[in-house]
Amino acid sequence: MRATVKPSENNYVTLTVEVDESELSAAIDKTAATMASQINIKGFRKGKAPRKLIETHIGGPAVLRSEAIRESMPDFYALAISDTLVDPISQPTLSIISGEDAGVVVFEAEVEVRPEVEINGHGDLRVTIPSPIVSDDEVDKQIQRILETDAELNDVDRPIVTGDVVVIDVNTEVIAGQEGKPLNVEDFSYTVGAGNLADGVDETILGLKAGETLDAMGRMPDGTFQTFHIAIKQVKERILPDLTDEWAEENTEYETADALRDGIVNQLRRMKLVEAQIARRDNVLLALSELVDAEVAPFQLVDQEVQSRLQDLVQRLEQQGIGVEYFLEMTGQTPDQLLEQLREDALRAVRVDLALRAVAAAEDLAPSEDEIAEELEATATALKITTEVLKENLDHNGRTPAFTAEVAKMKASKWLLEHVTYVDDAGSVIDSALLETDQSDDDSAYGEDDE
User: Fold this and answer.
1) What is the DSSP letter of 429?
2) Domain boundaries 152-239, corresponding CATH code
3) Where would a tag sit more exposed on the chain, N or C end, judged by fewer CB atoms within 10 A?
4) CB neighbours of residue 178 within 10 Å
5) What's the pLDDT tens digit per position in 350-362?
6) What single DSSP character describes residue 186?
7) Does the domain spanning 2-112 belong to CATH 3.30.70.1050?
8) Residue ranges matching CATH 3.10.50.40 in the chain
9) What is the C-alpha separation between 251 and 256, in angstroms, rounded?
10) Strands (E), 245-311
11) In whole angstroms, what is the distance from residue 428 CA to residue 128 CA?
12) How many whole angstroms separate alpha carbon 303 and alpha carbon 342?
């Protein structure tokens, strides 16, 4: 089999495929065997009738040849895709050019292919991510939370400040026209600033003292607005213990105060590192997608991605015993809103795909045979099949170009992660080496600040 490619208009190509007699002969034998297993011929069991009888039964050798060509064309098309590395995104239109009666069979396949886009600015991307650096303030706040577990509460006769514990009686009234349940509790201990009562109440209670009352309106967690009547009975101040070696040894897993601080630093560093690493890839790809105009993304690709995401959502919901209608009710969405969100996500995914391919082309990141072989082996191992079986499946299904492209995209993604500039929310440059392994020298974390 031989295949050639000729570009056509509107992002289409035409493949011309030539199938030799020997290859077609094998296809005819396969078709004859299939027909033999399906046709009833008197005196023979299914699948046992001679070839000549099968041909006679269906109308002669020409009919068998025609049927074999029709059935085998998709397979030869898939092999042609693998040989030419064409990247189709739609179903082909197949037409026989010659050889339908005898000789070499020639057919054409016209198909829409993935567009190749040019990209600019990928090497100058500045991507904002959470800082992996642990600040002294973050450490101090964590230590304070630990100390608060052993804090004493002392009555005070002064205005309330954030962090005080107040003992209050709370009575609420639902505002007319709204549905909600009133709240009535006595001797309720509440930490001012926690924000657990209602929106707006914590701010209005500041500055009051024990013995005073407060009338305020706030929005409850259920969304309803209610009028609050609060009687402040006691105001208590948290007295934290001193952070000493003795306290640390008695109340924590650490033997000294310094060891406790070091432990907190290490915990926070690991947590912030993971957060930054996750955000790094997501935010890099998001920034990269913006370099590709939405109009460039073919409708075929976006629609396929939408259908794939919708099918995946339905399957996951079914596994949890949840219907789509119930999911829409829980999330407060209409079917149209769900589809619109899926389409937005699909469009972004297609733009990322096109951009990664463009980066691979721009930076000459085409995978080598060894790199493809390595990824084939890793994929085959994950699927618990042999590399030979995987490669054969890819070839016969026309998926070899897609697999090769995925390896190239992996290289492009790695290249981007190593070459973009990372900044924190303040715009300060982050040393990318800190995103690979944990570091103890926070002073080396930042490059020069932006001017």
Assistant:
1) B
2) 3.10.50.40
3) C
4) 12
5) 999 999 999 999 9
6) E
7) yes
8) 152-239
9) 11
10) none
11) 9
12) 10
> What's residue 175's pLDDT?
77
Question: What does the chain come to in residues?
Answer: 451
CA distances to 245, 250, 251, 266, 269 from 144, rounded to whole Å, are 15, 16, 13, 17, 18
Distance CA 438, CA 419 (A): 20
* pLDDT beyond 50 at 275: yes
CA within 13 Å, CB half, 250 = 10
Give mean pLDDT, residues 281-296. Answer: 92
Residues of the chain with pLDDT > 90, as a percent, come to 57
Domain 258-444 homologous superfamily, CATH: Trigger factor, C-terminal domain (1.10.3120.10)
Mean pLDDT, the chain, rounded, equals 88
Question: Strand, helix or coil at 331?
Answer: helix
Q: Single out the residue of 10, 14, 13 nearest to residue 97, CA to CA.
A: 14
pLDDT at 305 over 90: yes
Q: Which amino acid is at 352?
A: V
Tens of pLDDT, residue by residue over 24-66, are 889 988 888 888 787 777 767 766 777 778 777 788 888 888 9
